[in-house]
Amino acid sequence: MDENKLTELLKISKTIKLLYVEDKEDVRESTSELLERFVGYVDVAVDGREGIQKYIDFHKDNGQYYDLVISDIDMPHMNGIEMTRAISEINKEQAILIISAFSNSEMLINLIDIGINKFIQKPTKDHEFFLVLSKMLNDISIEKENIENIKNIKLSNIKLEEKIQQELSKNIELNALAITDKLTGLYNRVKLDKVLDLEINKMVKLQAEISIIFIDIDRFKPINDTYGHQIGDKVLQSFSQVLKNNIRKTDIVGRWGGEEFLIICHEANIEGSLHLAENLRKIIENTSFEYIKELTASFGVASFEDGDSIDSLVERADKALYKAKHNGRNKVCF
Q1: In this structure, what is the dihedral angle of CA atoms 240, 245, 249, 254, given to the nearest 10 degrees?
Q2: pLDDT tens-digit readout, 32-77
Q3: Do the domain assignments include residue 175?
Q4: Where is the Response regulatory domain (predicted)?
């Protein structure tokens, strides 16, 4: 192992936490001293029973398992094979190194069954122990690094997803603002123009019917002059809500501009649209609006005819609205 690799291994090894289980005091002390030179944390147990308890307590206190368990086999109360079998049942991924004078075939089979990573026969030589330990520490450090990389990738993905969601939400919000009248919350003129174009093209292809209703609040200027623009704005908001609450689910309502509104009636002929407009007129007339109490509106209705364009349809509805205004307001005309 070259000097750079050794330096990197020693650096990584200082993050390793291990449990060392040995019943013989002199061996335990000398080996634990050697281990403490290479790893950052060493827990020591005198037999298998204490080893199991320390293993459980360490996980409970730290939220993680030891990176490595090193154990003898021949110990009182609970031997190394029993202990490592119990540990493997708790954590199947646990790295385990066995150091023992025993090397009979039955014992080796038991160790293989448990899934022991490495076995060193006593008496151990320092250089042999160091080579095995360094290999295991290197494998563990690589595994820890891979886990950390996976965590970082997952964290980066989560942050990326959050950022994407934020951008999507921002775009949705911006798109909504672009087509929404800020004061009333209804669609604005831009959106109404797009819907008209789309619906009329669809109607021509499917030979369906479509009508529009222009609505203008009667004598709105005196409301602003008498009560102020803040009250005027509240009236517009309340009026918009009345319209929204009393149209069909398939209809689209928006603010055309000022105190003028437009309803696009899907698959509605002139009779159906006149009926809707008259119903709205009565509801508005009988609604008690805050501050001004009484309010009326005039309605101009037009239905799409052969040869019509968006402009001609809007022009006929606008003329019908003018007629309603000219004939005394609070009327529906076509």
Answers
A1: 0
A2: 888 888 788 999 999 999 999 999 999 999 999 999 999 998 898 8
A3: no
A4: 17-137
Q: How many whole angstroms separate alpha carbon 239 and alpha carbon 181?
A: 14
Domain containing 109: what range?
3-151
Single-letter amino acid, residue 27: V
- What span, in angstroms and rounded, lies between the C-alpha atoms of 121 and 64? 29
Q: Which of 89, 259, 271, 278 is catalytic?
A: 259
Regarding whether 108 and 223 lie in a shared domain, the answer is: no
Q: pLDDT-derived band of residue 22, with 50, 70 and 90 as boundaries?
A: very high
Residue 160 within a domain: no
> pLDDT tens-digit profile of 159-181?
877 777 777 777 766 666 678 89
Does residue 132 sit in the same domain as residue 43? yes
Burial (0-12, 13-18, 19+ Cβ within 10 Å), 159:
exposed
Q: Is 22 a catalytic residue?
A: no
| 88 shares its domain with 196 | no
The conformational region for residue 123 under phi > 0 = left, psi -120 to 50 = alpha, else beta, is beta
pLDDT tens string 193-248: 998 988 888 877 777 889 999 999 999 999 999 999 999 999 999 999 999 999 99
